[in-house]
């Protein structure tokens, strides 16, 4: 080989690639555990009547932050939305770990044979996911590395129903454990358009809602009404609005605007719990039916907004650090 050929071979990009970037230690969990848990799958009406559903075998992934192997830390249960667990959920878990908080990524779908409920919300009632959240709380409260009195719950869209309404004293009495309660409740783009009996009577813990103003999938207005009712009843509840936020505006794996043409949306519906746990269209005795009520719309949008995403992540992390490390 000539000297020139040797120089060309040495300088060839194919043979002289830079070493791949390595994640910083703070970006990685200290330990990961897959934890099974038992739950049940009631229908919406059965849930409201206090009737357990069929048994469900679920699981979740617990990510403990770096630190001493015996240190006890606070935790957050993350409850996914209609599309299931996403890369955004992973990012939230990483950022919680960076703050010294364990993250439990609850999977309400796989154990039930569900991939997505975007086009058929009847596959799993949102209230059933609240049972899952309570069982996750019990599982974590018994874990030797978790502080039982410092467990929060955070949900996204469909999962935010579980995260926000699990503060209800009525629902905790029906499905929670007397010895365990969430230390805080956080909902992102929460469906707030069902008024449940006694839903303003909640635990004396903070409730924080975060919602995009331009969300046409799950609109913000009903959440303004819910927070007003909660505050009028003396609850520590707030709603933070994000001016450019579409649905899932915190998800960096999404483009800025995505059409979801077959999505079921109840953006035009206002509902209330009637007699015997039946959900009616507000002001009527007409039962709400997901597949046939005239107010149900088909098609909506999601989309990532970098500025609003950065804001909500900073706001939620600051809040959780304040509440969980008191």
TrEMBL record:
Signal peptide segment: 1-16
GO terms, molecular function: carboxylic ester hydrolase activity
Keywords, in A-Z order: Hydrolase, Signal
Entry keyword annotation includes Hydrolase: yes
Pfam families reported in the protein's UniProt record: DLH
Dienelactone hydrolase domain segment(s): 67-259
Domain of life, source organism: Bacteria
Entry keyword annotation includes DNA-binding: no
InterPro entries to which the protein is assigned, alphabetical: AB_hydrolase_fold, Dienelactn_hydro, FrsA_esterase
Protein name: Dienelactone hydrolase domain-containing protein
Species this protein is from: Muricoccus nepalensis
Organism ancestry: Bacteria, Pseudomonadati, Pseudomonadota, Alphaproteobacteria, Acetobacterales
């Amino acid at each position: 080989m000539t000297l020139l050929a040797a120089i060309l071979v040495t300088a060839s990009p194919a043979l002289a690639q830079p070493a791949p970037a390595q994640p910083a230690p703070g970006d990685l969990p200290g330990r990961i555990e897959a934890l099974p848990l038992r739950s049940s799958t009631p229908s919406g009406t059965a849930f409201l009547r206090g009737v357990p559903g069929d048994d469900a075998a679920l699981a979740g992934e617990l990510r403990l932050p770096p630190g001493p192997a015996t240190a006890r830390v606070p935790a957050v249960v993350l409850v996914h939305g209609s599309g299931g667990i996403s890369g955004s959920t992973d990012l939230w878990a990483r950022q919680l770990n960076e703050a010294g908080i364990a993250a439990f990524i609850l999977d309400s779908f796989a154990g039930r044979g569900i991939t997505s409920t975007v086009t058929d919300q009847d596959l799993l009632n949102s209230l059933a996911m609240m049972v899952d959240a309570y069982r996750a709380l019990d599982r974590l409260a018994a874990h030797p590395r978790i502080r039982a009195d410092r467990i929060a719950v955070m949900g996204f869209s469909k999962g935010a129903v579980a995260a926000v309404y699990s503060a209800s004293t009525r629902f905790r009495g029906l499905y929670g454990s007397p010895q365990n309660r969430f230390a805080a409740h956080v909902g992102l783009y929460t469906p707030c358009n069902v008024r449940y009996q006694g839903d303003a009577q909640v635990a004396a813990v903070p409730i924080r809602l975060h919602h995009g103003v331009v969300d046409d999938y799950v609109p913000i207005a009903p959440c303004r009404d819910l927070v007003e009712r909660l505050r009028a009843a003396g609850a520590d509840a707030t709603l933070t609005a994000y001016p450019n936020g579409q649905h899932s505006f915190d998800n960096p794996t999404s483009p800025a605007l995505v059409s979801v043409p077959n999505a079921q949306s109840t953006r035009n519906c206002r509902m209330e719990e009637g007699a015997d746990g039946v959900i009616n269209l507000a002001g009527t005795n007409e039962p709400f039916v997901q597949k046939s009520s005239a107010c149900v719309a088909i098609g909506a949008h999601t989309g990532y907004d970098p500025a609003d995403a950065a804001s909500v992540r900073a706001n939620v992390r600051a809040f959780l650090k304040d509440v969980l490390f008191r």
